[in-house]
Amino acid sequence: MTIDLTAAMADYALPLPAIGQNYSHFVMRAVPPRKIGITPRRLDFLSRPSRPLFHYGHALYSADFARRDGTRETMVSQRDRTDSTIFVDSGGFGFIHAAIPIHDIDDLRREALAAQERLGNAGVIVDVPTACIGRGVSGAATFRQCLDHTLASIDYVLAYRDPGSELRLLNMIQGTSNAECRRWYEAVADAPLDGFGFAGARRKDISLVLELLVEMFRDGRIAGNSWFHVFGTDHPGIAIYLTAIQRQLRALLGNGVRISFDSSTSFRYTQSLGQIITGLLADGQNIRLTNYRVAAEAHGISGNDPWPFDSPIGRGRRIGDFFHMTGTTGADRQKRFDTTGAMMLTHHSLYVELAALVQANRWFDMEHGDDWESRPNLAIPFPVHKGVDRIAEVFERVEAGDFDQAIQHAKAGKRSLALFGGGPDEEEDIR
User: Fold this and answer.
1) Phi and psi for 42 in degrees, rounded to 5?
2) In the prediction, which pLDDT does 66 show?
3) SS3 for 334?
4) Residue 246 has what pLDDT?
5) DSSP state of 355
6) What is the C-alpha to C-alpha distance for residues 257 and 178, in angstroms, rounded to an integer?
7) Of the candidates 367, 251, 214, 403, which has an alpha carbon nearest to the alpha carbon of residue 206?
8) Tell me, what's the pLDDT at 430?
9) CB 348, CB 313: distance < 8 Å
10) To bridge 115 with a disulfide, which of 66, 221, 251, 304 should be the other Cys (CB 3.0-4.6 Å)?
11) How far apart are CA 412 and CA 407, in angstroms?
12) If residue 308 lies in a helix (H) or strand (E), which one and from where to where?
């Protein structure tokens, strides 16, 4: 029986798994390179007809992957568009590491828009991330250069997007500081697009996101079908905050408003390090996803031993189904998974990741009654509850038309709403 995580996520801000290109190819194979008792098609979580082990109908795919796919069929290109949602990223992240040179930006603009209209329900313009500045990327070494390239991308999509397409195309906000984010927003805000993506080093400062959303609402830049996306996070605390914001916006504008966020954790780290997500930790002091570098730690046991972690693909399996249990020892055994094992580990970790985000939202809803402050032994940390109350108070001021007070109240909530990152010195994926 297929487990349906799509329905479980219906009332929450949407996590979008950032599908790896190799995974999107693997699940289209008729048979796996190594027998695992099921066909690769059953790992295609987007497609109900493939009888997936679990179904989740939402994901992100890079336009850079799509343009390199060419005419090759992938789990994204062959999906049922009536039963799934794909957000097509522009591929602008490639500028940061010079995987895509700045002088190729015209080609990327053209190919990204074509991929977005062909494959996606939503997408973002080709922005040049401000993370390029610190890396000395030629042609994107200053804030002004990054912004000017992005403004040119806005001009391109306004001139060439298909007016008959249902694609929701988002603007972007970048910056290495709050001041830069505001300057960027003021420069791009008037473009008649369908929402905003939040990227860069400040993207996880939810107090800043909230301030900017209030300004957008005040200035008539949020409609009943607007889409907002936060790049590069799967933190359960941020998921709870974004769900709270989505609920407030929907109460004012209707259920067409959508907030999403994405993570490549279960693809990138699982396949490079053998690291899997193991669940949700919520102990009143902390809330986070837990992980385990299983490829490095599975020493001294038989490949016939049962797989110790629960998931649809893990149930009834042996450790040896995921790894080659050879006679090597120590560091030589840290990467013992072949292509088939890597895809199985990815499927396992992704299911656990999504289920943990459902659990975080439900757990919060169970605890957050009118008397939550008097309840002992909260599992979701006190500052998260306070942060959601702050979000509700901000929107009370928005509904009353007191936008200046709403903005000030959002700023004053930084202690809880910026609890889970957003500082300029972050080293993780800053899109």
Assistant:
1) -75, -5
2) 96
3) coil
4) 98
5) H
6) 25
7) 214
8) 36
9) yes
10) 66
11) 9
12) none
DSSP class of residue 307 equals P
Would you state the structure tokens that stand for residue 45, as one six-digit string?
């979580």
Q: Where are the alpha helices (DSSP H) in 224-336?
A: 236-253, 265-273, 294-297, 319-322
Res 303: pLDDT: 78
pLDDT of residue 245: 98
What is the spatial distance between Cα 247 and Cα 159, in angstroms, rounded to a whole number? 34
Report DSSP state, residue 42: G
Q: Using CA atoms of 15, 16, 22, 26 in order, give the dihedral in degrees to the nearest 10.
A: 80
Query: Which value, in Å, is the radius of gyration of the alpha carbons in the chain?
Result: 22
* pLDDT value of residue 136: 87
Query: Rounded CA gap, 55 and 3, in Å?
Result: 6
Integer Cα distance of 228 and 209 in angstroms: 10
Is the four-CA dihedral 328, 334, 339, 343 of positive or negative sign?
positive
Between CA 342 and CA 322 the distance in angstroms is 7
Cα 194 off chain centre by: 18
Q: What share of the chain is helix, strand, coil (3-state, %, to 5)?
A: 45, 15, 40
223, 228, 211: which is closest to 252 by C-alpha? Answer: 223
Beta bridge partners of 62: 89
DSSP character string of 87-120 = EEE-SGGGGTTTSS-GGGHHHHHHHHHHHHHHH-
Say what the pLDDT of residue 325 is. Answer: 53
Tell me the two tokens of residue 390.
Answer: 């702050």
Mean pLDDT by 10 residues, the chain (431 residues): 91 97 96 92 94 97 95 95 95 91 95 97 97 92 97 98 96 95 97 96 95 97 96 97 98 97 94 92 97 78 86 93 63 65 95 98 94 90 96 98 97 92 46 39
Question: Residue 272's pLDDT is what?
Answer: 85
b/e 22-38 (16+ beta carbons within 10 angstroms → b): ebbbbbbeeebeeebee
Domain boundaries, the chain: 3-265, 268-363
Q: What is the CATH code for 3-265?
A: 3.20.20
